[in-house]
Design a protein that fits this description.
About 35% of the residues lie in helices and about 15% in strands. The radius of gyration is 20 Å and the shape is globular. Strands 3-2-1-7-8-9 form a six-stranded parallel β-sheet. A three-stranded antiparallel β-sheet has the order 5-4-6. It is of the alpha/beta class and about 325 residues long. Helix 8 packs across helix 14. The chain folds into two domains: about 210 residues, 3-Layer(aba) Sandwich (Rossmann fold), CATH 3.40.50; about 90 residues, SIR2/SIRT2 'Small Domain' (2-Layer Sandwich), CATH 3.30.1600. Helix 12 links the parallel strand 8 and strand 9.
Length: about 325
C-alpha cells in the first residue's frame, strides 16, 4: 500500500537494497497459502523449455526486468559515447562528467543540459520494437504480472503496456513536478517548451518543472516497492537488455523464490547469472531482439506479434 511504501522509504531512507537482502517468513507463508508454490512447470533447461511452460500456461505470473538493451535497437542514443551527436551537443555545457546530467544538485544549479537531453529522448521521437510488443502480448495473454524497467524513454507505454503493469524504476517523462511548489503536470504539457529548447517553468510560481525522472540523490518512486509482493508471487522471471549493475534494481533479479525459473536474454552474462546461477536459470546470449524473437517463435506467437506490431505502428 502507499502508506506501507512511504513507511519503508522513511525507515530505510529510500534505500530498498536493505529490504532486498531480507525475505519475510510471514510473507512467504501468506503467498504460498494463497497461491501455492508456483505451479507445476517443467524445470527448464533451454529457451524451448521456457516457451513450453509459457505456452501451456504453467507460467501465469511472469515478471519482466528490462534495461537500455531493449531500447537501443529503437535508435535511442547513448549520451556517454564520444562521437555521438547527442554527446557532442552536450559538450557545450561543460559537464564535469557525463552522469552529472542526472544529479539533482547539478540540475538545480543548471537544468539546461538535462533539457537538451530531454529534447532528444522525449516520448514520441522513437518507436517501440519487438521486445516492447512482446511484453504487451504477454500482458494480453493474461500472463504478465508486472514489467520492471530501468528505461525512461516511455517505449513500453507507447507499445501499449498499461501503466499499471509497469514499474518505471528510474522514473518517467509521462508526468512532471514543479521543483518549487510541487504542482503536478502531465508530461505532454511540457512538450512545446522542451522541444523549443526552453526550460519549462511553472506558471504559478515560475519554478523549474522537472519530469518525474529519478535523479541521483532522489528517492525511488513508491511504485518500486510493488516488488515486495510481485517477486514472491512470480512463477517466471525474464531479464533482458540490462547490465544489472545499478542498485537497487539489480538486486531484484535475486528476489524471486529459488524454485522459480529465470530467463536471461542479453548480450552478456550479468549479475547472478554470472556469479550465482541457480539450477533453473536459462540464458540466451547475443542480440536481445533476436533472442526475444527466438522465444516468440518457440511460443508460436509470431503471427500474433506481427499483427500487434503492425497495428501499433498505425496507432503511433
Amino acid at each position: 500500500s502507499r502508506l506501507w511504501s512511504r513507511t519503508i522509504t522513511s525507515v530505510f531512507r529510500g534505500n530498498p537494497t536493505i529490504l532486498l537482502r531480507q525475505e519475510s517468513f510471514l510473507q512467504r507463508i501468506i503467498i504460498r497459502g494463497l497461491f501455492g508454490g508456483g505451479g507445476e512447470s517443467v524445470r527448464p533447461q533451454t529457451l524451448q523449455d521456457v516457451a513450453k511452460n509459457i505456452r501451456e500456461r504453467r507460467c501465469k505470473r511472469v515478471v519482466v526486468m528490462a534495461g537500455a538493451g531493449i531500447s537501443t535497437p529503437s535508435g535511442i542514443p547513448d549520451f556517454r559515447s564520444p562521437g555521438s551527436g547527442l554527446y557532442d551537443n552536450l559538450q557545450q555545457y561543460d559537464l564535469p562528467y557525463a552522469e552529472a546530467i542526472f544529479e539533482i544538485g547539478f540540475f538545480h544549479r543548471n537544468p539546461n543540459p538535462f533539457f537538451a537531453l530531454a529534447k532528444e529522448l522525449y516520448p514520441g521521437n522513437y518507436q517501440p520494437n519487438l521486445t516492447h510488443y512482446f511484453v504487451r502480448l504477454l500482458h494480453q495473454k493474461g500472463q504478465l504480472l508486472r514489467m520492471y524497467t530501468q528505461n525512461i524513454d516511455g517505449l513500453e507505454r507507447l507499445a501499449g503496456v498499461p501503466p499499471e503493469m509497469l514499474v518505471e524504476a528510474h522514473g518517467t517523462f509521462a508526468t512532471a513536478t514543479c521543483t518549487s511548489c510541487l504542482r503536478k503536470y502531465d508530461g505532454e504539457e511540457l512538450r512545446p517548451e522542451v522541444m523549443s529548447g526552453a526550460v519549462p517553468r511553472c506558471p504559478t510560481c515560475k519554478g523549474v518543472v522537472k519530469p518525474d525522472i529519478v535523479f541521483f540523490g532522489e528517492e525511488l518512486p513508491l511504485s518500486f516497492f510493488k516488488y515486495l509482493t510481485d517477486f514472491p508471487l512470480a512463477d517466471l522471471l525474464i531479464v533482458m537488455g540490462t547490465s544489472l549493475e545499478v542498485e537497487p534494481f539489480a538486486s531484484l533479479a535475486g528476489a524471486v523464490r529459488s524454485s522459480v525459473p529465470r530467463l536471461l536474454i542479453n548480450r552478456d552474462l550479468v549479475g547472478p547469472f554470472a556469479w550465482g546461477r541457480r539450477p533453473h536459470d536459462v540464458t540466451q546470449l547475443g542480440d536481445v531482439v533476436s533472442g526475444v524473437k527466438e522465444l516468440v517463435d518457440a511460443l508460436d506467437w509470431t503471427r500474433e506479434l506481427d499483427a500487434l506490431m503492425a497495428a501499433g505502428s498505425q496507432e503511433i
